[in-house]
Write the structure tokens for this entry.
Amino acid sequence: MPENRRRYHTQTYSHYIEGSAVRKLEALPEEFPREYQRSSKEERRRQAEKNRKRQAARKNRERALRLDFTYTVFLILSVVVTVAACVVYLSLQNEITRTSEQIASLKSELTAISNENVAMEERINSGVDLSQVYQIAVNEYGMTAIREGQIHYYSNENQDYVKQYEQIPTDN
């Protein structure tokens, strides 16, 4: 291998000495080839444009990450509205549950009262002998059974009940 060998590394010339000797840094040669000078100007121009774009992108990112006052107020208001909606929803849900439980307890109470009413009606009906009632009505009170012609029909279309102010006329 040659002791002195030149290698071209990204825009700079480097001079390496291979072997066990300590490497010494050398400055770039005074004269650059014309191609290198042109490409370095273009490269510098491209690099400067790239740096400008990077800085603009960094500024845009910083601006996007910054929280301004209106965004903060909007965010706080939206959180407050959301929490309020959740609280109202939960309270309504609780009210519905409570009402359902109350309806269930009232239904069970109604069932118990209805059963008690039916049982009491059966007790009353079983305690009354209708033939005995008929005998007492006919013998003691002088009542008679209804005959044909004793029934008079009255139509009252405007009211739910009738007040009797005088004796009902007979059809004789």
About this structure: The CA atoms of residues 3 and 122 lie 128 Å apart. The first strand starts at residue 4 and ends at 9. Strands lie at 4-9, 12-17. The helical segments are 34-65, 69-127, 130-139.
